[in-house]
Amino acid sequence: MRTKRKISGEANGPVVVVLPTMAVSRTEPLQRGTMEGVGLRLKARRALLQQMIPQYRAASPSQKRELLDALIQVTGYHRKYAMWLFNHTEEGHLAPVSPHRRRYGAEVQEALVLAWNTMDRICAKRLMPFLPTLIEALERHDHVHLSDACREQLLTMSAATADRLLRSQRGRGPYGMSTTRAGTLLKQQIPIRTFQQWSETQPGFLQADVVAHCASDLAGDYVSTLTLTDVATGWTECVPLLFKSQEAVLDALRHARQLFPFPVLGLDTDNGGEFINEALLCYCEQEQITFTRGRPSLKNDMCYVPRYAQ
Asked: Which of 5, 9, 64, 146 could form a disulfide with 150 if both were Cys (CB 3.0 to 4.6 A apart)?
């Protein structure tokens, strides 16, 4: 004997579940609060599941919830386990999933990557508002050639879709090269100043960094630049360095002090050996310049000078 249970459906029509009640074996009446399907035999549960799987996969989301509730009520399964059973075949493989139709072709993705690299790999939310102007400029200078359909797809793309298409490219770009070698001496004598502690409105407190012009190869000789940026005004001076040594950096600092239109009151640097040394520390003490440093490996502490040192 079988019992039919009708579940209210939507536009797709009602969903009918046939419950094999003759397979139920109960030795005593159910207590209040217990699961209805505790006494249902394993074979009956499997037969019921195989019968409901085609209905579940063809049902709408609301009908799937009703079928799931019905299976849980009859069998006593946990909801997560019942969902897993509905989405797996008898052999344990995943249920067939309809293939997602790819909307954006290789031409659209290549143009997006080119525009992204042109804008120095900024995030998609900042890139997409300027993409029409950028694509027009790239086409005008023959850097990219797009069909009307591809251009429309590219310019109507959402920021989330652009992030998804750029995900495979994020780990392939060039990484910044660092020539900083930590200076281990005198660190205890030079206090740390974090990015949260910059509140100066008086000109004269500088952040300093040395930029190496070595392209992608650190081997051989190359020119460096000592970049000094005033935190309050943004005034920046750049002094070339033939050698990245303590003496060269100190001489460049002396020369840069003459270029600023205000006296230098403070100097904040990274932890490189060209800055963390006894010669520069003594010079700052003699000239009454406050000498501080950022925390190792935390670039936020040098958040003013890198904007000009790139």
From this structure: 146
Determine whether domain 187-309 maps to CATH 3.30.160.20: no
Residues 6 or more apart in contact with residue 16 via CB below 8 angstroms: 4, 5, 6, 7
Residue type, 239: V
Q: Name residues whose C-beta falls within 8 Å of residue 23's C-beta, 6 or more positions apart in sequence.
A: 40, 41, 43, 44, 47
Amino acid present at 277: N
**At which residue do the structure tokens 């029509």 appear?**
13
Q: What is the pLDDT of residues 237-287, one digit of tens each?
A: 999 988 888 889 999 999 999 999 999 999 988 888 888 888 888 999 999
Query: Within a 10 A sphere around the Cβ of 289, how many other Cβ atoms?
Result: 19
Query: Which among 214, 245, 241, 247 is positioned nearest to 228, based on CA atoms?
Result: 241
CA of 189: how far to CAs of 23, 274, 276, 293, in Å? 83, 16, 10, 10
Q: Count Cα atoms within 13 angstroms, Cβ side, for 196.
A: 2
Q: What is the rounded CA–CA span in Å between residue 266 and residue 110?
A: 47
Give the C-alpha separation, 63 to 61, whole Å.
5
Note whether 309 and 239 are within 8 A (CB): no
- Upper half-sphere CA count for residue 142 (Cβ side, 13 Å): 0
Is residue 197 within 8 A of residue 293, CB to CB? The reply is no
Reported pTM? 0.42
Q: State the Cα–Cα distance between residues 232 and 254, nearest whole angstrom.
A: 21
Whole-Å CA distances, 135 to 110, 121, 125, 143, 145: 12, 15, 16, 9, 9
CA angle 258–264–280, rounded 5-degree value: 90
